[in-house]
Amino acid sequence: MADDSKIAMRCEKLHRFLGRDEGRVHVLKGVSFEARAGSVYAIVGPSGCGKSTLLYLLGLLDQPDGGEIWINGRLMSNSLDSIRTAARGEHIGFVFQFHFLMLEFTALENVMMPMRKLGRLTPEQMQDRATRLLDSVGLGDKTHRLGTHLSGGEQQRVAVARALANQPTIILADEPTGNLDVKNAALVFDLLTSLAKDNGQAVVLVTHNPDIAARCDFTRPMRDGLFL
Question: What is the pTM of this model?
């Protein structure tokens, strides 16, 4: 029997409609999915099939029109906004195609931001953890460099470190290598997945890159709002 304690995130029969009246579109049509700790999942499919919509629902950035989402066995899909916001900060790390760094701040300050928001560590502890994370993504010598003085690949590595800052249960990545060349794409993918596996975190990523998808533990093709 499978060990349900290793299920980091699970959703059942998610539905999502976008638009209104004649323009109303049924984007997700009863999607069910689970992600286990220490595993990497790729969601693949053509543009408009619902991949990113699903990722935003799983990240508690949006609410489904039907269905349920659990994180660590706790039902989250119908929770109050304040509870969902707290759960995002504690349990979910995000990596997007665009790094969304605060470029006027240093790499160190960017990685510390989620920790400041969660408010569980002292300033010294936050700085120590951020320093260690940047070292783990190969940027130990650039902790005090402004975002504007980092290359695109380096900025995305800072984004990976930031996603790991609060030791989340799950990391959600939307085309995390989409803006990178082949070498940097492979490096960012390797760092993200190896660090997550080392920490027993689940990774769910949306990608159009077949090489990246092939290197994940599981691949879930999606089309027309459903997994195939």
Answer: 0.88
**Residue 26 tokens, joined:** 């049924």
By the 8 A CB rule, do 137 and 95 touch? no
Dihedral sign for Cα atoms in the order 156, 158, 160, 163: negative
What DSSP state is assigned to residue 55? H
Per-residue pLDDT reduced to its tens digit, 35-89: 999 999 999 999 889 999 999 999 999 999 999 999 988 999 888 888 898 898 8
Please give the DSSP secondary-structure letter assigned to residue 5.
G
Is position 139 within any domain?
A: yes
- The pair phi, psi for residue 125, each rounded to 5°, is -65, -40
* Longest CA span, the chain: 55
Question: In whole angstroms, what is the distance from residue 14 CA to residue 210 CA?
Answer: 26
Half-sphere exposure of 184 (CA within 13 A, CB side): 16
Q: What is the CATH number of the domain that holds 150?
A: 3.40.50.300
Residue 93: which domain range?
Answer: 40-62+83-227
Specify whether the CB–CB gap between 69 and 58 falls below 8 A: yes
Is 26 contained in some domain? no
Cβ neighbours, 10 Å, residue 228:
10
